[in-house]
Specification:
By secondary structure, the protein is an alpha+beta fold. Helix content is 30%, strand content 29%. Strands 4-5-7-8-9-6 form a six-stranded antiparallel β-sheet, with helices on one face. Strands 1-2-3 form a three-stranded mixed β-sheet, with no helix packed on it. Strand 7 and strand 8 form a beta hairpin. It is globular. The two termini are 18 Å apart. The structure holds Palmitoyl-CoA. Palmitoyl-CoA binds next to helix 3, strand 6 and strand 9.
Length: 205
């Protein structure tokens, strides 16, 4: 589940500089694919180009998913992750900051690829973002805490565009960490979240 990679910071930076721009380019491609109104022959031509590019990338690839890799000094590389993955074009991706008091927060923009109701963020995407942010907040050290229960209250529709999410630990009871958080636009909170995150048996002391 967690894979040790014996590499240093220079190698991490080299890989990030190689794969990050590729994922960014594919994110742009996803947005353009949804929104283009260009001519049919251009679309067919682009489809062939994209299929050819995919074939080249598949020339050498790993079996299965990317996994969560980490280095000997504990640097995590969750690069395939659906929310923060540097190599995952599906991920917005979120850049999550941690305050000294343990609060986690992120400013990010969700565009056309995340639409549910017209012009608004899909409810499942709101849950995706909040699940990850609350999960990170619940897992401050080297121990993962997994979502046991996540409860959301959708107060109003979340518009596509710039957004802000934040979370904090409410309390810890044994292996259970209770976390609360919100998703907001410029007008205020759109979604409230409460989660129970649990240390899996294999990670308990
Ligand atoms: C190495 C370097 C890298 C380190 C890296 C660290 C950072 C890492 C960041 C991770 C960031 C993740 C951010 C994304 C978060 C997800 O997306 S996680 C994926 C979604 N969640 C899952 O797949 C979890 C699937 N479920 C499970 O694995 C297990 O059922 C659970 C939730 C771990 C519970 O384990 P369990 O052995 O069944 O628990 P059990 O011992 O029976 O019960 C323990 C307590 O929890 C309660 N409980 C059990 N299940 C639930 C539930 N579903 N709801 C509420 N309470 C429950 C029990 O009642 C019990 O309570 P008490 O009796 O103690 O009061």
């Amino acid at each position: 589940m967690f894979t040790l990679e014996d590499i240093d910071g220079v190698e991490i930076d080299r890989r990030a500089a190689l794969y990050g721009p590729l994922a960014d380019a594919v994110r742009e491609l996803i947005d353009a694919t949804i929104r283009t109104e260009t001519d049919a022959d251009v679309i067919r031509d682009v489809e062939a180009t994209v299929r050819a590019a995919t074939t080249r990338l598949r020339d050498r690839q790993i079996d299965g998913a990317y996994g969560v890799r980490f280095t000997p000094d504990g640097t995590g590389m969750p690069w395939g992750n659906a929310v923060v993955g540097l190599r995952n074009p599906i991920a917005p991706p979120l850049d999550i900051e941690r305050d000294e008091d343990g609060r986690h927060h992120s400013r990010f923009t969700l565009g056309a690829a995340y639409e549910g109701p017209p012009g608004h963020v899909h409810g499942g995407v709101c849950a995706l973002v909040l699940d990850h942010l609350l999960g990170m907040t619940a897992s401050p050290g080297d121990k993962p805490n997994f979502t046991g229960t996540l409860t959301l209250r959708y107060r109003r529709a979340t518009p596509l565009g710039p957004l802000h999410a934040e979370a904090r630990i409410d309390r810890v009871e044994g292996v259970k960490t209770f976390v609360v958080g919100t998703l907001s636009d410029a007008e205020g909170v759109t979604v409230e979240a409460e989660g129970v995150f649990i240390t899996p048996a294999w990670a308990r002391d």
